[in-house]
Amino acid sequence: MSSGRHRAVAFAPIRPRPQRRTGSLGFARRSAKVQMSSVAITGATGFLGLHLVRELLVRNHDLIALVRDPGALDRIARFLELVGEPSRLLDALPRRISIVESDVSLPMLGLSPKAFQRLADDVDVVWHSAASTELHDDLESLRPINVDGTRHILELVSAGQRRPLLCHVSTAFVAGARREGVVYESELNGSAGFENAYEESKFEAETLVRDWSRRYDRTVVVARPSILVTDRPPHADLPMHTLLSLGQIMRDAATRLCGTSRTAVRVVGHPQGHLNFLPVERAAQVLARLTEAEHPRRVSTYHVVQGHDVSVRVLMDLMETLAPLQMTMQSAAPAEQTALEAFLDRSPTAAMLSHRRRYDDTRTVSLLGPPTSPIRVDLDYLSAGIGAAPVAPPAPRLGNRS
Ligand SMILES: NC(=O)c1ccc[n+]([C@@H]2O[C@H](COP(=O)([O-])OP(=O)(O)OC[C@H]3O[C@@H](n4cnc5c(N)ncnc54)[C@H](OP(=O)(O)O)[C@@H]3O)[C@@H](O)[C@H]2O)c1
Fold first, then answer.
1. What pLDDT score does 149 carry?
2. Integer Cα distance of 136 and 138 in angstroms
3. ∠153-221-143 over CA atoms, to 5°?
4. Which atom of ligand 1 has the smallest separation from the CA of 75?
5. Residue 58 Cα, ligand 1 centroid: separation in angstroms?
6. Considering the entire predicted model, what is its pTM?
7. pLDDT at res. 46
8. Ligand 1 center–CA 324 separation, angstroms
9. Is any ligand 1 atom within 6 A of the Cβ of residue 227?
10. What are 271-314's pLDDT values in tens digits?
């Protein structure tokens, strides 16, 4: 599955403006609590971004949304209405959110030099959440948004006279194809390769951020959420999320290749496999709190994860409620695969069924305290979030699932 290689990330020097000096420590390092007057955010219309916008607004931050959709404010308003925010917040949106139409994949975000500099000088914090999260895309399609997009955001924070703090949304999946053991927040190591090009592009982006921080002695916050989920049923005003799109792809493939009757498939997995699914609302809360915290390191990387993992068997059960499948786990691919088995074997879901790694979140916990959320992410929770209803009466189990 993994190629074990990754492209060296080309680093084009991004020169920050001259910085204020602070005594014998040399260049000012932003370790003190951030006093925010202006927070910019990319990806504000995305699954995580909408929740982060909500959290930041509720915490009294006014925002500059760097979005490519001119109708973004309406989308944000519809989302806030969906999640039950009061009309006084909705009424205040035009005053509290400035929309800057921009595209992270373009140099200077597609803005004029004057508009780019004005934006850079206006911000104190930039949350960079925009990305392509297409797990099936290739690297060449993903790099312009995920890697070049991050480079352009680094150019923005470099140009800002107020030395804005960059908060970069990465992913726990920069750990790549490493399936076992503990992944630490200090680590960024691509030697195990990657299970898909999305992971690799996010790895390259995080590498760029780290290199920039070291080179220019600038503090950055890197947040690495695990798989973001919700128990809110699918809705037109709530963007697709990973599980929902993976489930739909699987259902379409099963129906196309095998029709609508329940079909037995053998999938490769590990009986002790487990995954970390994090409620997106909690991820947004943690990110909002990270914005306001004091960060002790130049590169402060935080795993943003749920306090408990979920067995990969729950993922199989979930997929069986979405698609007419009866899945049996095996330790290796069968010598002769059906077309559907071959398809599943190549899908990102297949790789997840073998994951046994854990994400150490010591830094997050020491900064923000232990998670207090009583939410239990289980089959019921995940099923609610994909609007799962059984596609056919459950068939008798085939083979040994334990
Ligand atoms: N979802 C997860 O499970 C998960 C887990 C860990 C980390 N993450 C990370 O969290 C971040 C947000 O993910 P998400 O789930 O919210 O993704 P998402 O729902 O796919 O949203 C992506 C956002 O990026 C914007 N965007 C894409 N291309 C852009 C461009 N060229 N210029 C400007 N904006 C652009 C999209 O704008 P439009 O609305 O215009 O398309 C959208 O707002 C990403 O960095 C992702 O890697 C996600």
1. 98
2. 7
3. 40
4. 39
5. 21
6. 0.90
7. 98
8. 30
9. yes
10. 999 999 999 999 999 999 999 999 989 999 999 999 999 999 99
Residue minimizing CA distance to atom 24 of ligand 1: 130
Q: CB under 8 Å to 296, separation ≥6 — which residues? A: 31
CA of 382 to the centre of ligand 1 (A): 20
Give the mean model confidence (pLDDT) for residues 27-51. Answer: 73
Predicted local distance difference test score (pLDDT) of residue 14: 52
| Centroid of ligand 1 to alpha carbon of 47 (angstroms) | 7
With the most atoms of ligand 1 within 8 angstroms of its CB, the residue from 129, 148, 232 to mutate is 129
Residue range 149-162, pLDDT digits in tens: 999 999 999 999 99
Q: Per-residue pLDDT tens for 111-149?
A: 999 999 999 999 999 999 999 999 989 999 999 999 999
Model confidence at 92, pLDDT cuts 50, 70, 90, reads: very high
Q: Is 133 in the pocket of ligand 1 (CB under 6 A)?
A: yes
The average pLDDT across 57-64 equals 96
Q: Whose CA is nearest to atom 18 of ligand 1?
A: 46
Instruction: List Cβ neighbours of 322 (8 Å cut-off, separation of 6 or more).
Output: 247, 248, 250, 251, 386, 388, 391
Indicate whether residue 49 lines ligand 1 (CB < 6 A): yes
- Could you tell me the distance, in angstroms and rounded to a whole number, from the CA of residue 245 to the centre of ligand 1? 14
